[in-house]
């Protein structure tokens, strides 16, 4: 499932390539025909992300709400313009804390040129979702591109096409409905005031008897954290995921929120869930090139902890995989 950094990058992609341009909207699959008809011919005026949900405003106070869920993806084709806020001068995504190191992009991770967070001018398509491989570049300049697979919604400008496949939610909302949806979500560091968001998170999570490992995944408590960030934030805090929220020291809750602020910013900047700090240049290159080299515990079941050597545990918590170190997080 896409985590918060992915959706913020997708919203920026729409802001750069669709806002201010009239769109043709259709539902090739047919499941969103009525909604597409309502959007057809309108001009997007604002794109915003809150946690794992994206909201696209159209003229006439009409909003499109999209939640990709586990299987959803946006595929972009045509002329795709880089977002200057997350791209460096040479057109590549910036890095975290490793200045002077040439970027390396993997073939299957979040930031490869054919994957999640790599908008660029192309004749083919670029997929923006979580843990999905990019589509192959087209061999010709057919326009608009042919519909491939089950496309719930196609948005088309004169130069750019966005196809939505497999979302959990794709619906039209009024202003009031959009505001109600956002109000029900927990704080997002890139949307809400960071200090106010910290107070909201600490006050709510600190009262709950629910294990902190579940609370971090509850989008009503904090927006945008998914399986990867959950495991990594807990490890970085040396916190047992089964600890009830009300038993977590207040300062630890504050440290986790601040860590989320930092990690989310890194994710948006790089397109990758980079959760290991202070890597030397070669280690940083490996981490950019291979997912398994950029996390402390995620996806490392049975492997030795990078800190203490204890085997990383994999268990199920609330129907989602949880990775943690039983010694460092005792």
From TrEMBL:
One of the GO BP terms on file: base-excision repair
PROSITE patterns reported in the protein's UniProt record: FPG_CAT, ZF_FPG_2
CDD domains: AcNei1_N
Record's keyword terms, sorted: DNA damage, DNA repair, DNA-binding, Glycosidase, Hydrolase, Lyase, Metal-binding, Multifunctional enzyme, Zinc, Zinc-finger
Cofactor(s) in the UniProt record: Zn(2+)
Residue ranges constituting the FPG-type domain according to the UniProt record: 296-330
InterPro entries tied to this protein: FPG_cat, FPG_N, H2TH_FPG, Ribosomal_uS13-like_H2TH, Znf_DNA_glyclase/AP_lyase, Znf_FPG/IleRS
Every Formamidopyrimidine-DNA glycosylase catalytic domain range: 2-100
Xref: Gene3D superfamilies: 1.10.8.50, MutM-like, N-terminal
Domain of life: Bacteria
E.C. no: 4.2.99.18
One GO molecular-function entry: zinc ion binding
Family: Belongs to the FPG family.
PANTHER family according to UniProt: ENDONUCLEASE 8
Name of the molecule in the record: DNA-(apurinic or apyrimidinic site) lyase
